[in-house]
Amino acid sequence: xxxxxxxxxxxxxxxxxxxxxxxxxxxxxxxxxxxxxxxxxxxxxxxxxxxxxxxxxxxxxxxxxxxxxxxxxxxxxxxxxxxxxxxxxxxxxxxxxxxxxxxxxxxxxxxxxxxxxxxxxxxxxxxxxxxxxxxxxxxxxxxxxxxxxxxxxxxxxxxxxxxxxxxxxxxxxxxxxxxxxxxxxxxxxxxxxxxxxxxxxxxxxxxxxxxxxxxxxxxxxxxxxxxxxxxxxxxxxxxxxxxxxxxxxxxxxxxxxxxxxxxxxxxxxxxxx
Length: 273
Description:
CATH superfamily of the largest domain: NAD(P)-binding Rossmann-like Domain
Shape: elongated
CATH topology of the largest domain: Rossmann fold
Strand content: 5-15%
Distance between the termini: 26 Å
CATH architecture of the largest domain: 3-Layer(aba) Sandwich
Number of strands: 7
Order of helices and strands: HEHEHEHEHEEHEHHHHHH
Number of domains: 2
Number of helices: 12
């Protein structure tokens, strides 16, 4: 995601620098940055804005490291998928630094610089979470960055963000992963036929299960309480539908299917408006 953001911002600010300790990663991402560095110590002192694009637990380690080298007035913005722990860490920054939590609601199934796209953030909702180090000027700068990369800034408190993404994103990964593993069990019983018949519905349902493990592992652990609550709700809804199916309650099952179909279509219209 960091390389995609660099591509989206190139030519729209004075310079885009990147940091990665891995020389192979730096070589792969060189096309997107004006300059690449091996460490924050060489990059942070001249930066007006530091954007932390990494898995959540890595971001939590990078925040104090960035603060150690950043000049007074520097804005620190992150792209982490959960916000409570990150915002808490940003709250603790020295008074001379500015900070806003961030989470662009976009992404790709494939990771790495080779998958970067300059249009990744186009028209995406880009969450901004206030911190104890968020001044009006810091928020204005963060909003400008979001708009420069094509996104739509949305101000959200960290707690509300984490509850919402537990429902629409994090739990969805676990459902996709559990379904993928269920198919594996059935394929072991039935044989190759299961995989031969897998088509678009299977592909759509399992897409999230192929996501980057490092990022998702951090997300699940950091937001586990809210994800667990969402799973309880899901289990209740699934149990209800299963009950209708097992009892052969055709009319009620059809009514539920049509109601849920309507919910999906309403969401599609909302996204298009």
